[in-house]
């Protein structure tokens, strides 16, 4: 991923925060099928991943459904559901109406799979959906800088700051999600150790088959392997 700056994240926030009306899907029809494509009017996706549109797979919808279902009391029945893409209606934001638990989750979710299967784009879609619903969310990718989005705007800091836990907990509660992109395997054991200790709901994408941090976490961690498909158009 290219080195993004604060401007990219601020534009992302300004485009989506509490804006469920912003259209991010467009229909693409070929001879044999109708596909939905993810676009990003903020420009973040192009700057970060070098693409302007990406194919939305049913794998994206299924993984999102499981990620959300894990945080609900009825998660077993919700996870058993198999959502389908409607060729005539754009994907619905599954976080509309979602309520954060006031007591936290003690959970983790890992989405792994083959390289270039589209996991980073999926995590980015989760971030967009959460911003559109005004849900406080942390995000980190390929480096030491984390970003936190809430009603006050965008806050950033370093993983290696001596008061990291204090800085982050000041903005993010244990009932909030922290999205972690480690598809390039840039951290020891594929997850910053300081994040594992925080107790946030860590939602991670990785290309690793063995996810080492799972065995060091006191949380219940669900691993989902995304099936292969071509994410780029």
In short:
This protein has 233 residues and is an alpha/beta fold.
- Helix segment count? 7
Q: Determine the fraction of residues in helical runs and give it as a percent range.
A: 25-40%
Largest sheet: 7 strands, mixed
Q: Strands across the major sheet, in which order?
A: 7-6-5-8-9-4-10
Order of helices and strands: HEEHEHHEHEEEHEHEE
What is the percentage of strand-forming residues? 15-25%
Distance between the termini: 18 Å
Shape: globular
Mean pLDDT: 85
- Low-pLDDT runs of 5+ residues are none
Helix vs. strand class = alpha/beta
Backbone CA Rg = 17 Å
How many distinct beta strands? 10
Task: Supply the number of structural domains.
Answer: 1
Notes on the structure:
This protein has 233 residues and is of the alpha/beta class. The protein has one domain. 26% of the residues lie in helices and 24% in strands. It has seven helices and ten strands. The protein has helices at 6-16, 44-49, 58-69, 75-80, 119-132, 164-171, 193-196; strands at 25-29, 34-39, 53-55, 107-112, 137-141, 145-150, 153-158, 177-182, 201-206, 220-225. The strands form two sheets. It has a seven-stranded mixed beta sheet, sandwiched between helices. The chain has a three-stranded antiparallel beta sheet with strand order 1-2-3, with no helix packed on it. β8, α7 (193-196) and β9 (201-206) form a beta-alpha-beta unit.
